[in-house]
Amino acid sequence: MSLSESMNIEQLIQEFEDLGDWDDQCDYLIDLGRELPKLPDHAKTEEHRVRGCQSNVWLVSEVKAGSPPRLEFIANSDAIIVNGLIAVVTILYSGRTPQEILEIDPRQVFARLGLERHLSSQRRNGLFGMVERIRHLANEAAANSTAK
């Protein structure tokens, strides 16, 4: 199990606060990104590509059976800092129900991590592109679970 899989968002926020300065936080993001599970090449399709990202980002979800079902996300990018941002997003959203995903305020979390002020506007757009895709997948999963 990687560090990002064993961590929750509050632990990540605490780690960022402990690190203090952006250079150390950025290094930590890069380390988290290196630990991401690899997305198989066959999943790197236009269907799974995240819109709005400057870099190539592919994101897929798996619905874990249960009542209610939970979603797991796996994603990769061709940019190392973006892989770190993917790790943040997966820590925030993976393992949650569609309803929990839709109730999360990502802006508040990203602000607590300092991402709002340290990322370029293009990187922020990409980050929110990932969030939009995850919310779309959560809406689909919610609709599918109520249709059954």
What amount of the residues lies in strands? 5-15%
Please estimate the helix content: 55-70%
- The low-confidence runs, each spanning 5 or more residues with pLDDT under 50, are none
Please outline the major beta sheet.
2 strands, antiparallel
> Gyration radius, to the nearest Å?
15 Å
End-to-end separation = 33 Å
By CATH, the topology is Sufe protein. Chain: A
Oligomer: single chain
CATH class: Alpha Beta
User: From the 3D coordinates, which CATH architecture would you assign?
Assistant: Alpha-Beta Complex
Largest sheet, spatial ordering of strands: 1-2
Q: Structural class of the secondary elements? A: mainly alpha
> How many domain regions?
1
Average of per-residue pLDDT values? 90
Number of helices: 7
**What is the ordering of alpha helices and beta strands?**
HHEEHHHHH
